[in-house]
Amino acid sequence: MSTSPDVSHQRAGEPSRPRYVCPYDGEAFDQKSRFERHMASAHPPRAPCAADIEKALAGIEFPKSKRELVEYAAQRVPADSDVMRAIRSLPDGTYRDAAEVAVGFGQARGPGDGAPAEREPPSVRGGHAAATEGVSAAAVAKILGGIDFPKTKSELVDHARHRQESVGWASPRSR
Ligand SMILES: [Zn+2]
Question: Cβ(80)–Cβ(24) under 8 Å?
Answer without folding.
Answer: no
